[in-house]
Prior knowledge:
With 440 residues, this protein is mostly beta strands. It has one helix and 38 strands.
Amino acid sequence: MRCFALIAVSIGIASDPLSATVTKSSWPQWRGDGLGVASDTKVTLEWSPTNGVLWRTPLPGRGHSSPVILDGRIYLTTDVEGEAIPGVKPVKHILNNEDFKHPDAFGADLKHELRVLCVDAKTGKLLWNQLAYSGPAFDDRHRKGSYAAPTVAAEADRVFAYFGSEGLYCFDTKGSLIWSNSVGGLATLGLGASASPVLGAKAVIVQCDQDNGESSFIAGFDKKTGKQIWKVARQVSVSWATPIVVTAGGREQVIASGSEKIVAYDTATGEEIWSHEGLENNAVPSPVANSKTAYLVSGYPRKRILAIALGAKGDLTGTTNLLWKYEKGSGYVPSPLLLNDDLYLMTDSGLLSCLDAKTGTVRYDSERLPDPAKFTASPIAVDGHLLLTSETGDTFVLKAGTKYEFVRKNPIGEKVFASLAVVDGRIFIRGETNLFCIGR
């Protein structure tokens, strides 16, 4: 399980663009377009707490959502925790036919203020701080996690913030609430929600897998009105992977990872387009894809990577649509990175592997960083380099390519759990207490 619940030009955008295309002036959702690949060049790749930081802005509360940037504004979420509320208890969980409570489950009985923040990307000024929800939580979270783990999605004049059981909210760019809707109570084995909302042409889509899978579903909501357009049940146990939207075979589809089953749905109707047997592990890393191939990854309790050809319909299990599989190198939490014809895998301890994305051939395997570190943030790529940011706030810079080549380590001076964002030649890092802007 994703027990932290934090749980995607010389590099260029992936050769086959996804729905929310990353440009030099936008990073509109989780990992930009789900891939974590920036189109920027001439980006500063060396910094420290006293060098290269253009500004830092203190952030209220606690949150692990990543920065989203659109039209010069940065959007984040946070949870301001208060005192315990007498008599409040989290939803009960059953695992293997027995009552289950995770030893690190925490927080449902506290008062929570779940907020959406907007920061000026040039100056770091906090432009607005709006309350979305106030009250107790339906389920616990992991002590290391946050109820503000899912990253927002932004489009034109709308910002979509998702807090799992505590609701889906749409704000305008000035901070006014346009609409809100509930997905109901989501049981996540006491570890919290983490899958971020993704955008189709007409719908904002949320993946809501729960406990043993009896109540799991995925749903699409009208971006203008918030009305639920479709909802499809999923016989898939609780997962924490953000789905990815891609156009393949002439149809826009959202690909949802899962332990028991991997499914692609039509973003407009929820119709199942294709499926494949699942990862048979906890579905935590988010999939990556282009218009030809989807890559599904898991790292616990076993490591498994599946490359599935897109364009077909129906049950693809046992067919030639499974191009290759690999059972080494993947992480429990960090998502993979797809860059042109290279697929990068990183473990939670920072071991880095590179595979040929077309064939699965190993280019290099389990290369170790010069310093030991733990990773929750997913890697990103920018200007011919890979950026791997550890929980202690050190960003390891490596050259992208078929050979492992370490360049440098950049400290920021505080813990980091959120993945980085890149816009207009600047790198944005959400630390435990501050938002940093790195640049010239």
